[in-house]
Design a protein that fits this description.
The protein is an alpha+beta fold and 333 residues long. The protein has a single domain, classed as Ribonuclease Z/Hydroxyacylglutathione hydrolase-like (Metallo-beta-lactamase, Chain A, 4-Layer Sandwich). The protein contains nine helices and 17 strands. A hairpin with a 2-residue loop joins strand 7 and strand 8. The longest helix is centred in the N-terminal third of the chain and has 24 residues. The structure holds zinc ion. Zinc ion binds next to helix 4.
Length: 333
């Protein structure tokens, strides 16, 4: 360090003081700080993207529904409340439950797994087509729709005002689900309060059926290259997941294997009121969770917290959900 001559040090001090005084003067004359901007209170667009080998996967958010906690089976209300509380899931006005769909560009096909609720469940949902557009695609570009099952939160999005939303798509569904939900005689035998669900399923596929573009597939049938159907029967008679494979990686888009992440990873034996065969649904859930954990598969769930993509890890007598991390669309692994 060099020592400044005394007069220079005084001069520097004088300059510094003048700068401070000038700044203070400017601040005194500045207008009062303006009011803060209004809070936005709107959510960001509902899509999330990642690569699975050469396949591009886009999660699409349809919306949310607040489910009544009374829908659980094989568990006490007290246990349900405890399991929800330990995951900080509110139970009033109901359990917030996402509805997700998945768009997979395989390079050869643009495949949509499930279509959301459209207008069937009110304005908190029905945003799959809107988020598909926000994600850079048009519904008319989808060539294949794979339905995990024919419940209205998965199939209603096929149509708008009776017209097909995916005008160029062929729709695939397991033949057991088609036989159960689309047969008018079977519907007539169902309880009165379930009749509407059957009617919604028939209305959703009607224009595709009329155009010869509804395919009810059986075990071993090929769908599109790189995709195989995985039977998960029980929640509905033909409930199925779709296993996408590319570049040595696998992702099981599993539909409704888990409705409540807080309850059913920890306790896979807990069922839901809207399972058609709850015992079979529990068996399917246990088998699929074991397969996903053992195979270290990516999984994508229609009712897991958005984007609903992640891994399953075995822990104790149950499982832990490990969600994907938001980040760049990586093509380097
Ligand atoms: Zn569902």
């Amino acid at each position: 360090m060099t020592t400044l001559p005394c007069f220079l040090r005084r001069r520097r001090l004088a300059v510094s003081l003048s700068v401070v005084l000038a700044l203070a003067g400017a601040l005194a004359q500045a207008p009062a700080a303006s009011a803060p901007p209004a809070q936005q209170k709107t959510q960001v667009p509902g899509y999330y993207r990642m690569m699975l080998g050469q396949f591009e996967v886009t999660a699409l958010y349809d919306g949310h529904v607040d489910l009544d906690t009374k829908i659980f089976r094989y568990s006490s209300p007290r246990e349900v409340q405890r399991l929800l509380a330990r995951m900080f899931v509110a139970s009033t006005p109901g359990m917030q439950t996402a509805v997700n769909a998945y768009l997979i560009h395989t390079g050869g096909n643009l495949v949509l797994v499930d279509t959301g609720t459209a207008a069937c469940f009110g304005s908190a949902l029905g945003h799959v087509a809107q988020n598909l557009r926000a994600a850079g695609y048009e519904p008319a570009q989808v060539d294949t729709v794979l339905l995990t099952h024919l419940h209205p939160d998965h199939a209603c999005g096929l149509v708008a005002d009776g017209k097909p939303v995916f005008a160029n798509a062929t729709v695939y569904v397991d033949q057991a689900d088609a036989a159960y939900w689309l047969d008018e005689a079977a519907a007539a035998r169902a309880p009165q309060d379930a009749q509407a669900v059957f009617a919604l399923a028939r209305a959703a596929v009607a224009p595709y059926q009329a155009a010869g573009r509804l395919r009810a597939y059986g075990a071993g049938d090929t769908l599109v290259p790189g995709v195989t159907a995985v039977p998960e029967h029980g929640h509905t008679p033909g409930h199925s997941g779709y296993l996408f494979r590319s570049g040595g990686q696998g992702m099981l888009v599993w539909g409704d294997v888990v409705h409540s992440h807080a309850v059913q990873f920890r306790r896979p034996e807990v069922a839901m009121a809207f399972d058609v065969d709850s015992r079979q649904a529990v068996s399917a859930r246990k088998a699929i969770l074991a397969q996903a954990a053992r195979g270290k598969l990516w999984v994508a769930g229609a009712h897991l917290p958005f984007p609903g993509i992640g891994h399953v890890r075995a822990e104790g007598h149950g499982y832990v959900w490990v969600p994907v991390e938001y980040g760049p669309v990586r093509t380097d692994r």
